[in-house]
TrEMBL record:
It comes from Actibacterium mucosum KCTC 23349. This is MIP family channel protein. PROSITE patterns: MIP. It holds the Pfam family MIP. The keyword Transmembrane applies.
């Protein structure tokens, strides 16, 4: 269990380092072109996800996401006590990852985002983004277990572009990104709306996707 918790902590930290770090670098090099910056941010995040899921998937299942942990718990595949420990590790790891990214780029470690991300369209996007993520995970486990890392990485890379919210799809990531006033940030007061929609997407996915991918 200790090894699994460390895997969730380190994996989520590395994920946020890639999300925030690539956002900072992309914004600095794109000359104000937000499309180019978003593309670089998406590619870097997808690449890191592939590495993390491939290496840490055999250790903890590579959730790195309270919404994913909730879905597995509702499916009876993760015990509640383990789920609580995983979520704590994910949130703590995400915050540490943001701070590490700030340190790499010589920015103030402690920040609060000022980037507004709210409204019904973005909230609905987060429901769909989270549901789509679970579709990739559960579909991959059921039909292509050797391709889960690639499926998730490709999905998130694409979802950065086809969702109005740029596909946070992760409560731990949302919390962590509220603590960075950089390209990837979200205003702290807007984070709860995103998190609520992500959890709704997780519940929908947990109860509908197993039927879709059932073998009988």
């Amino acid at each position: 269990m200790q090894q699994k918790i460390w895997a969730e902590f380190i994996g989520t930290a590395m994920l946020l380092i890639s999300v925030v770090g690539s956002g900072i670098m992309a914004e600095a090099l794109s000359g104000g072109n937000t499309g180019v910056a978003l593309l670089a941010n998406a590619i870097a995040t997808g690449c890191m996800l592939y590495v993390l899921i491939t290496t840490l998937g055999p250790v903890s299942g590579a959730h790195f996401n309270p919404a994913v942990t909730l879905a597995f718990t509702l499916r009876g595949e993760c015990k509640p006590q383990q789920a609580v420990l995983f979520v704590c590790a994910q949130v703590a790891g995400g915050i540490l990852g943001v701070w590490a990214a700030h340190g790499m780029f010589d920015l103030p470690i402690l920040q609060l985002s000022t980037t507004e991300r709210s409204g019904s369209a973005q909230w609905f996007a987060e429901v769909l983004a989270t549901l789509g993520l679970l579709f990739a995970i559960f579909g991959g486990i059921a039909k292509a277990p050797g391709q889960v890392a690639a499926l998730v990485a490709i999905y998130i890379t694409g979802a950065y572009w086809f969702t109005a919210s740029t596909s946070f799809a992760n409560p731990a990531v949302t919390i962590a990104r509220s603590l960075t006033d950089t390209f990837a940030g979200i205003l702290p007061t807007h984070a709860p709306g995103f998190i609520a929609m992500q959890l709704i997407g997780a519940v929908i996915g947990a109860y509908t996707l197993p039927r879709l991918f059932a073998n009988d």
